[in-house]
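Annex B. Sample input.
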Amino acid sequence: FVVPPTTVVSFSAPTFNCLRLAAGKSHPIPVMLEPDCVIIDRDESVYYGMLKISGQEISSTFLPFKDEEKALELYTHLVAHQDDWILCCHHLVRYQDEWLVALEYSKKIVTYFRERMKRWESSNRNEREWFNYISEDFGKILRDVACIWAKSNKSIYTQDPIKSIFITNFGGRVKFLPNLNAFDQPMEGDIDQLKYLMNYIVNMPFGSVIQNYQKFNMPNELSCFLTQLNFRHLKYLSPAFLLDAPLFWRPIDKFHFIINLDHTIKRGEIKLPGLDKYLNMLKKKYSYDWVLAVKSDPVLKSIFEHAEFSYSTKSFSSLVRYCSNVYRHYNDNITQKISIIDIENKLSRQLPELYLHLFEGLINYATGNKRR
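Annex B, continued. Sample output.
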């Protein structure tokens, strides 16, 4: 049976046959025999095995508790919060001298990658080979974690990510186990823990502190994200901005980023001289000539030539206005119309470092001016 969150339940160990009081009644109502379980494996504080209930066997992950009240508290919370990013709870089971909260089958994130490492076969076991081996899983998991964190913004779901992030057995989905002992506060203190966890996974086979992300041959978007992941930035940046980085952007997200940034600049919320200052400081890192790049494409060139008569195109910040105009006017210059996504793909091919440059420049602008 499933216990409603408002129901107080008393379980009799060890057989776990039980009685519960109906709401407003003083006499107990008998309920069905409770499930049993078989433990197959253990990993630190987590058990893996089968939940036996109603003639079925369900692969499950079990969290053990000595304290019945703590087990019931977690069970009740999970039943009451059935979001698609929170671990599903099957049941509460008495096993030997412990109470087990039976969850959908899943592994802690570190356990998940340790098992990947055991299956890693390579004649040249170096940083690049390892990251190439895990890159698809790592990128998907990091994207899901960042997306969930940006939406939740509560420490109950982010505190101690090593213990709270689980990977399910079905499609490698990210799910969270709430920490009911955490204070329900914004997650500023947890950002560095997330960075530590991701660095640990990236460097798992080698056991030393990462000195240089380039050794792993990871995409620039990923190294930028991990480098900028710093809790001090949250004094001046929202978690949603810091976690919603170019690494995770789809073409339509890049479009909205440019349009929104252009509007923000036009409203005077971001000062052009200040933004130019920080974009110029990064010109050695992002060494591209945007004017030359867009002039190599006939349609982009025609939009640029029109822009030269309307505003100055000498600064990096003018690139934002130019790209915004590209989205508005690209189809004015061709016979066969194309979609926003196709326009963005063309811009990305011509200016592959554009979004990273702007993203990092905006972070430096916010932290340098000490204002959101």
